[in-house]
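Suppose a colleague, Dr. K., hands you the sequence of a protein chain of 287 amino acids and asks what its three-dimensional shape might be. Before reaching for any lab equipment, you can write down a predicted structure in token form. Begin with the sequence itself:
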Amino acid sequence: MKNAFAVIIALLALGTLYVILNDNTSLFAKESVSGERIEVTNKIKHIDLNLENSDTEVIPTDKNEVKVDIEGKGTMTLARKGDTIDVTVKQKWYEWIGFNRKSDVTIYVPKEYDQSMEVDIGSGNFVMAGESDSKKWKLDELSVEMGSGNMELENIETNLFEHDGSSGDLVVNGLTTKDGKVEISSGDVELSNFEGPLEGELSSGELTVTMDSLKGDLNFDVSSGGVKLDLPEEASFKLNGKASSGDISCSLPLKDQKIEDGDISGVSGSGKYTIDVSVSSGNVDIY
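The predicted structure, expressed as tokens, is then:
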């Protein structure tokens, strides 16, 4: 009986060791070297980028592969897991000692890739852009999570765009989406030439949105911080603004405007879209 029990324990130990050694997210992951690549087939539905402390640029390429170049401190793993290609860059514990701790990372992704991409940055800088305003990088979903650092996105078109920021600054120019969601715990988010519906939730920080045309409903829930919404003069919307504290202002002309105890409502143009604003503290400026 004892021998059988010992065999079971040994098998469990071997199985656990196998999982650890083949888990690219663990401390014992097999490291990849700079220049490694993985082919992108039609079975790949997700590309996940987990970047602990690096300066990273994502470049669209004609080649049908994900390739990663890395310079400086840090380790990189590039692996395929089912329908997902995972890129992870992080520092070993002893590399946190000293000042020059960042890695310089370049990630090449096929410009024809149009599925889901998830980006998680701990700190550092991140840059990603489509070719031009007329040739935007089209993705089904783009999900961004920021611990800190800075991120710049440009000329991207998505069905779903999601942002969750603990701190740091996000600057986006030329984003078109069918469903946009921004959540800010702290830090600043600037959306220029934005097109589509948008939900914004702010615990703190600042959200600035500039639109050449209004093409979707907008909803802002502000616990603290501020929202600046720059709309074209011909924008058509119904404004419903409620403020328990703080301030909501609209400098665009509104029909049937009502202002009472910090609340504001009215109609601009035909009232095609709805702008709902709720402020516990902080301020929202529409102009």
